[in-house]
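Sequence in, structure out. Go.
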Amino acid sequence: MKPILLASVLLASLVGLQGCATHASQQQLEQAAAMFQSVSEDQQVLQDAPKDVMRAAESLDRAKRFASYWGSTEDVGHYAYLGKRYSEIARQHSEQLQNQRLATQQAMEWERLRQALQEAKLLDLQQQGRWLEDQMIGLAAAETERGLVMTLGDVLFRANSAELGSSANRTLLKVVHFLQLNPKRKIRIEGYTDNRGGAAENLVLSQARAQSVGNFLQSLGIDAARMEMVGYGEQYRVAENASARGRVQNRRVEILFSNEQGQLGSAR
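Output:
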């Protein structure tokens, strides 16, 4: 019997028990059944850990059958525990496999980016440098009183998260190129948010996003000594927070580039 169908049968049968098991063992059985229903309705868990789900179903079925007999409280508790534990193992196994798949995918992406960097080094450095300058201007890099600043919108991040999305790779790869071709330049990475949520939480998120960008650049060979990371939270807005459009503009990371001698503009 498939786990999902078996879950329905088990839950229906629990309603019909006539109190043969004690209240405590009945409660254990209901908890195990609820946990089993949760994993049996999760298609990813069923795909990743079918054997564990089936073991949970079998243990729960035994607990249910023992619950219909007098004097079987210990057996009910034992098999209810096994059913609950197997359900937990199934979910943990599925999460572990998902994490492994994500790690493999990220490793492949890092390798692809490193290969792209290696190929770029074969190009004429002077020509590549001019091309990168043009690309940076096209990416909203602008001369300000603080120096050359590139603005990265929060579209590069997952919603309310400091985790970089895949769209960030191409943009930040150009920054890596530029820094490789200009080894004396340094950068300051500044994180900002809109004013939604608490100020303390926004400050932490802005700092985490700046750090994520720095970690990405460092993973592709940029020396940590060439980078500063700082978060300003909801300070220094560039637009009104009253509109969705304004809030999007305020949720950003700015990269401030030093001059050719490695001197950065003063911090805010």
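Check: Confidence is low (pLDDT under 50) at residues 14-20. The longest strand covers residues 147-153.
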